[in-house]
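W.,

You were right to be curious about this one. When I first looked at the sequence I had no strong expectations either way, so I just let the prediction run and decided to look at it fresh. Below is the sequence, 182 residues in total, followed by the output.
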Amino acid sequence: MKIPNNCKPEKAVSGDVSKGPITEPYLDKTDSGSFLVSTDGTILSALKVETDSNDTSGYVTKEAITEARKLKNPAWQGVISANGNLGLGDGRTYPRPDLGTFPSWQEVVPKERKEIKLKFNLQALVNLAEALGYDKKNSFGSIIINIPVDDTGEIQPAAWRVETESMPLGSIGLLMPIAKRQ
């Protein structure tokens, strides 16, 4: 499996160990392609990745992903053999965790629908966030948020599709609706 070096799917997983299946990214080989899926329950990233016939669906650890990104040989950067174990180009291997059944992520991906697209300058949003107390300095590109609407233009209470100008073609980003607490 080849993960683009500019992508960090480990950033979208849950840090709460009690949420087992969503604490590590998951490689899902489907009829429509191979996706490395990460979610924390409020956001979802489904990166379209290149795989070979030996790669199989299953969990891919954050550690293997970050170590693959650091490899000096450009041909090995971001490449992980994902079958019984997770193998890197330099010969290191990592066990593939069994965290149970990964959520049915494709059920929350919106089908074709009418949407309103919003494009934000992330640096402007970072500047605003820093003006309001956010302390991390970074430079970002733009994102596009697709808001679902019905035939009358009413916004629908469903996941919002998110795109960036640099994301791999076919990848999926979602801002998911938050349920009201009872």
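Here's what jumped out at me. The longest helix spans residues 122-131. And, maybe more interesting for your project: The first strand starts at residue 26 and ends at 30.

Coffee later to discuss?

I.
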